[in-house]
Amino acid sequence: MFKAYKADFLRPPATVIRKSKGKAECGCWKPYTSKIVGSLYWNRLREVFDYLKLRRWDVILEVGCGYGFFLPSLCQIADKVIGSDIEELFDFVEKTTLRDIQRTCNNLELRKADVRNLSHWIAEKCDVIVAISVLEHVDDLDKALIEISKCLRPGGLLACVLPSENRLYKLGRKMLGYSGDYHENYEYELLHVSLCRHFTEIEQWNSPFYIPIYHIGIYQRSED
Length: 224
Description:
This protein is an alpha/beta fold. Helix content is about 35%, strand content about 25%.
């Protein structure tokens, strides 16, 4: 049974966010620093947070945490938060923003961890694993979902945000200066089927006004 737990969505300090601007070839900083589509990207984090903040958790893991913009919010609602990303990106973002964020969050740990080999790096049994625009980039999705399941306690939750490749999404990408399809050969429906094969879907909703620019899903590991 969830009990009410008061917490507010937090953005990192503006000085920390500015440190990400213009850095990294992937351009993953662009949406969060854009005045045009930034509110939509921040809103994805806020919606996941509003769902999770209904209680306090023991351990929350964010895979693919990137610059760590979601971590200060998660640290309010868990005794321990782990932010992880693949080695190629982690070494860069740790120096750029993650160390600054960790200084303000005394319950935050940072670890290099590939989601396809997650249980090798994460010994804790997590109450919640968060994946914001991560799973669509994973080559071996089934392996990643098996690893996520291993790291979740029985009944634990996977909260994920999945993008769409519809016309509005592509228009937003052009406004940010990207070219081509962001997720080649990616289809939300196929990813959704894979998730439901490994977990039980308990909540699912789209971006505001029922426009499917992104999809938010809450999935649960079985109690077995």
